[in-house]
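Dear colleague,

As promised, here are the two records you asked about, laid out in our usual form so they can be pasted straight into your sheet.

NAME FIELD: protein one
SEQUENCE, THEN STRUCTURE:
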Amino acid sequence: MMIGEKIKKLLINEETSLVKPAEQVAVVGIKNRLNHALLLLTTDKYAVVPVLDDHSKMCGLISMPTIMQTIMDIEDVHFEKLGEIEVGEVMDRNYPYVFENYELEDVLNRLVHHAFITVIDDEGFFKGIITRSEILKGTNRIAHEFERKYEVKEKEAITH
């Protein structure tokens, strides 16, 4: 089932794109050490950030739990490992993404389980992210404006 055009129009604000452009997204490089990723995550209070290679291609995601699991064992936390291990060695390579010509249904389905999804081009270059927050802003807009803009009537029940 497709999302109706009128709902889509309210969900996606015409003045702004759903996609937060790559240059506005905090990312780490695949060759950065874990200490760099940890600083970014804690300083900017992110839960997870995209990992890019030297050519700005999407490689994976790195998160605080991944970093902590990497430097911990049953008895201790080995903080010295933060400066020794590269992000690419431990990042999550299984990440949600859509291509630039995405369908809104795909975005909504993936955002059910993720705070954001990455947007890539056909060659894997990172183009930005779409956040659950942006979709919720649109949902809020629908909840407040739909009946102000459109006349809504219930359809009669179909009986067989």
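NAME FIELD: protein two
SEQUENCE, THEN STRUCTURE:
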Amino acid sequence: MAPFTLKLDDNFIRFEKAVERIGNRKTAERAYRKVINKTGTKLRRGVLKTLPKQTGLPSRTIRKALGKPKRASASYKGNAASLSYVLTAKGGFISLKHFKPRELKRGGVVARPRGQRLYLEKAFMKGGRFPGRKTLNLGGAVFRANLNVGKRWYRGFHSLKSSVRIPDEMVIGPSKAQYDNATRSFAPAMEAEITRILAL
């Protein structure tokens, strides 16, 4: 699990100064929730845009993996207010079936994790003899034999996975840059919101 988090704790001194300037803690909390959620929404949109190209996965797969964010919220029925936005992804290494695999006539399979061509020697997606091989009814997964004894290589096989884990990808490359941009933009956005409130 690798969450992207914008937390009040990271800006506690700035928040207390905002309370002093505004003169009302509830108003300051409301302002922080507004800016945190707005910044977090931009972050989520950015990650949804960068991760498909970064991982080689379809946008719908990324969207499903991220799920719903935990947004900043006001106190409710005795629960304390939450002044953080948490974007979390879960999951292990992604099956190669999600990376446009295809079996080659010369043998082996080609897939494209992270958008890069990857050749997998002795991997297969079909059964039977060449050239009349048939697609296996196994969900499009890529397999490799466990055993390689004579003509019985096809007995005992396992599906192959990529080296791509969405939680890992969230904290590197373009997706990490989206997070860095979001954290840098938070303070100026908060200052603009305080200025707006004081001008009312």
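A couple of things worth noting about protein two: The radius of gyration is 24 Å. The helical segments are 12-22, 25-55, 59-66, 166-169, 173-198.

Best,
R.
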